[in-house]
Amino acid sequence: MAKELKFVMLLDCYGDLLTEHQRNVMELYYCEDLSLAEIGSPLGITRQAVRSLIKRTEDILLNYEEKLGFAKRLGEMRECFRRINNAVQEIEDEKLREIIKNEINSGLDLL
Question: How many other C-beta atoms can be found within 10 angstroms of the C-beta atom of residue 96?
């Protein structure tokens, strides 16, 4: 998994456990793809301060994942739904196939 995607997933799972400042900086860096300078300038902090904050917050997110494992389980559930969706294509009854596909989509929406 690409590093960026990994931290986006971790941010999605554990972002509410971060301070507002940590979460905002991580979202600007990973989701909005802003540079360190673009993040630091409006906040009145240096590029190095932004980088340091990102590194510390990455460590926090990795620690949460190591202890709780929600992002890993979320990925495993998505993969399970993908396999079920592939298997549904083999069902000949179109009505049943649509019912199951709708339930799969409902389950994915819950994730």
Answer: 11
